[in-house]
Amino acid sequence: MPMYRLDTIDRRILAALQRDARLSNVQLAEEVNLSPSPCLRRVRQLEAAGLIRGYHAELDRGGAGLGLTVFVGIKVERHHEAEANAFREAVVALPEVVSAHLVSGESDFLLQVVVADLADYERFLTGTLLRLPGVSDIRSNFAIQTVKEYGPLPLTRPEGEGR
Amino acid sequence: MPMYRLDTIDRRILAALQRDARLSNVQLAEEVNLSPSPCLRRVRQLEAAGLIRGYHAELDRGGAGLGLTVFVGIKVERHHEAEANAFREAVVALPEVVSAHLVSGESDFLLQVVVADLADYERFLTGTLLRLPGVSDIRSNFAIQTVKEYGPLPLTRPEGEGR
DNA sequence: TATTCATTGGCATCTTATGCCAATTTTATC
DNA sequence: GATAAAATTGGCATAAGATGCCAATGAATA
User: Fold this and answer.
1) Which of A90, B91, B114, B126 has the fewest beta carbons under 10 Å from its own?
2) Which nucleotide is nearest to B28 (CA to C1')?
3) Mean pLDDT for chain B?
4) Strand C neighbours with CB under 7 A?
5) CB-based burial of residue A47 (10 Å sphere; 0-12 exposed, 13-18 middle, 19+ buried)?
6) What share of chain A is helix, strand, coil (3-state, %, to 5)?
7) Which nucleotides of C are covered by protein (CB under 7 A)?
8) Where are the transmembrane segments (chains A, B) (predicted)?
9) Is residue B158, in this structure, part of any structural domain at all?
10) Chain segment B85-131, per-residue pLDDT in tens
11) Residue B94 sits in which domain range?
């Protein structure tokens, strides 16, 4: 984890690219008050440092035929190292699983699953999730409405800089 | 919701842009087996149709000083239309809230919150979340490990196309 | 205040984006 | 199955953007 010291311009760059990753370097440079050369150099540095992990298109789930989002809490049996890894690897490989976290609280894992509809989810639940190694309990919470999604990360201001 | 009929090439374009939104149109065209002109035209159409909602940089949360992700379940009192909206709007406006859904099950809302550390979360919880209008119960689940994140949507194949 | 190190701006060149039109393919209809 | 109409594709010319290089500017240090 090579610590990277972000200055104000870096933060502006990151904020801008979170909002619109397709900004041309010229536009970005203008937005952060730099000329294109140093701006591009900073972006490349941020990428190389791993601060920017990638650029992704955000799709309309409904439009893509994926009308149902489900948050799935999963409890697994006391995991030995090996089976824990097996479970994680299985989860990562499932295309329907958009995100997965090991969490504290009621469940051990919290997955976000995206499918076309209820019928599709039933198939996925009974045919795939329930058959994963070590699963002892599954709780499905259906997304009824999306209030906010893909919100930008709240980049903190550098120490000692007021707002 | 003007239904948009996606063909195989559209799906390839969407898959490619989910993976890497910074692909040049030339590269993208090559990847989907089209020449640049029609490729760019399709991308523009997908954008105009709302299928592509935007392009975002994915940042390293830790590197950006945001070391703690929390999934927060919130119960709200029997909502009248007005207060329900008030709650939603408040949530949308919070920078720490990266996503928020109205869900079925135990909680009414499920938020994903990103902060620097536990101290930061305590401040946010007591100073902000607990003061939101109508909140009756809050359950915080801390992300201990991220197994998968920003997974691409599982684009289905056009009907009648095997894999 | 002098010196060194880091960062910026501007320039030349190469690559990409874009609008336009003829050619090809697909779809619908007779 | 043949023909006509509509949609989509490729290629080309031009405008815009990306990139590497170098001198100039600014900041940090001694």
Assistant:
1) B126
2) C16
3) 93
4) A 9, 34-38, 41-42; B 24-27, 36-37, 40
5) middle
6) 35, 30, 35
7) 7-11, 15-21
8) none
9) no
10) 899 999 999 999 999 999 999 999 999 999 999 999 999 999 999 99
11) 68-142
